Amino acid sequence: MKFFRLLTPLLLTIVTVLWFAPAAWAFCGFYVAKADTKLYNKASQVVIARDEERTVLTMANDFQGEVKDFAIVVPVPTVLQKEQVRVTEPKIIERLDAFSAPRLVEYFDSDPCAVTDSVNLPAAAPRSSAVNQEAEKTRDRSLGVTVEARFNVGEYDIVILSAKESGGLETWLKRNGYKIPRGAKQLLKPYIRSSMKFFVAKVNLDKFEKSGYQFLRPLQISYQSPKFMLPIRLGMINATTEQDLIVYILSPQGQAEITNYRTVKIPSNTNIPLFVKDEFGEFYKSMFQTVYTKEDRKVGFLEYAWDMSSCDPCSADPLTQDELKQAGVFWLDDNSGSNVPVSPSFRRPSPRSNVFISRLHVRYTRDKFPEDLIFQQTANSESFQGRYVLQHPFQGELKCQAGKEYKQSLPKRFEQEAQTLAKLTNWNIQDIRNKMKLSIGNLTYSWWENLLSWLGL
Asked: What are the Cα distances from residue 332, in Å, to 51, 169, 219, 251, 457?
C-alpha cells in the first residue's frame, strides 16, 4: 500500500452541532527514509496524559510513502523499556478530536408575540548471532552511540539510543539503512547536550502484513520526567510548508498552557451568517489563518478546555473510563488495573477520576518557533470552547407590536453577522452579503422582500 494516513473526518450533527478538524498537523520528531524515498511530514496529533512527573504520550501521524520506508526518530527524556511502549487504536484520538473540536451551534428564535419571560437567544459562552552483535556494539561505541534497548511492539521494531554527539548518531542511522534529512545533524545537537535519548521506530513488515491493519497505528509511550515538553524542531526537517500540531493534554488538575510562547484563546462565541453551515470547514480554516497572522505567527491557540465528564454543547459524547485509559489516563480508579496502558509504577493507590482536557493548536515554522514546546499544568478549571452560533430568525406570522419591533431589529443583526464574519476571516464583505441574500431568499416570508431592501441587498 503506497498511501497511509490517519485522518479525522468532518462530521455533522444535523440538529444542533457541527465540528471541524483542520486537515493537516505536524509531527514532533522527524521521518527518516531508506534510499531515496521522499517522505512528506504533514500532520500530527499528540495526546499527553500527565500527572505530576508521570507522562503517557500518544503520537499519531500523517505519513505518505511505502510502509517499508516508514521510520521515526523522536527525542525522549529517558530510556524506555518494552513495557513502556505500546500501540493503540486511531479511534481514541478521533474520539478526543471529536469531543474537543470547534463547533457550530444552531439556535432558533421563538415567537416574539408569544407570552414568555425570555427569548430563545444563544446562551452565553460556557465557562466555557553473538559475534556479529558484539562487533556491532563495538562500532556503535566508536560513534559514541549506545543502544540502550531494542524490542518489538505490535507492528513496530523499536530501538532506544543515546549519543554523545550528533555526527555519530547521524552515522549510526545511515549505517543502519536510513537516509537522514539534510539539517538533522545540527538540530540533533541540543537534544544530545540535554542528555535526551532517541526513540527510533520502524515497521516490521512481516508483523504488519499479518496484523491485517491498513493504517499505521499510533504509538504510545510512558515515562517519568520533570520535563513537560514536546520536541517540534525536528518536525520541520521533512516539512514543505507551515506545520499544524494539535496537542490534547489530559490532566487531573485544570488547563494546560505553553510557557515559552503565549497561549491565546481562539475567537469564540460569535454569531455568524446562516450560510456558513455549509462552509464551516472553510470558515474555520480562514478564521484560524487570520488570527494566526494577526498574532505574528508565534502563539499557541487554546481551542478547548473542559472537564471530560461533561460538555455543553456536545459535539461528541464524553469518553468513557475505558477510552480514557486507552488514551493514557493512568490515575483513574480501577481496582484491577488491567486496562491501564502504562507500567505498574504509574498506578495510584488512591482512587481518582477527574480528567480535564486542553486542546492546543500550534501552527509553526522554524523561524517563529525556534524552541521546543514547554508546557505547564495549572489549577484553572474554567471551561472554554471554540463555538460559533447560527441564529435562525422566527418564521411565523408577526402581528403584535413586539413582533414588529423584532422584525425591524433583524437587518441590523444580519449586517452585524456579516461584519463579524468579514473581520474573522478577511472574506469580502459584499460576497458575504450576496451569500446571505441567497440563504435568506430560501425562506418563505411574505415580508422578507422588505427586509432585504432594508439590508440593502
From this structure: 11, 39, 21, 11, 57
CB distance 166 to 186 below 8 Å: yes
User: Where are the chain's structural domains?
Assistant: 3-390, 393-455
Binned at pLDDT 50, 70 and 90, residue 25 comes out as: very low
Q: For residue 58, list its beta bridge partners.
A: 47, 220
User: Predicted confidence band at 148 (pLDDT cuts at 50, 70, 90)?
Assistant: very high
**pLDDT, tens digit, 9 for 90 and up, residues 328-375:** 999 986 543 334 444 444 444 333 448 999 999 999 888 899 899 999
pLDDT at 3 over 90: no
**Which cell is 102 given?**
470547534
Residue 3: beta bridge partners? 64
Q: Give ∠ CA 389-395-401 in degrees, rounded to 5.
A: 105
C-alpha 283/C-alpha 290 separation (Å) is: 11
d(CA 230, CA 227) in angstroms, rounded, equals 9
pLDDT band at 26 (very low <50, low <70, confident <90, very high): very low
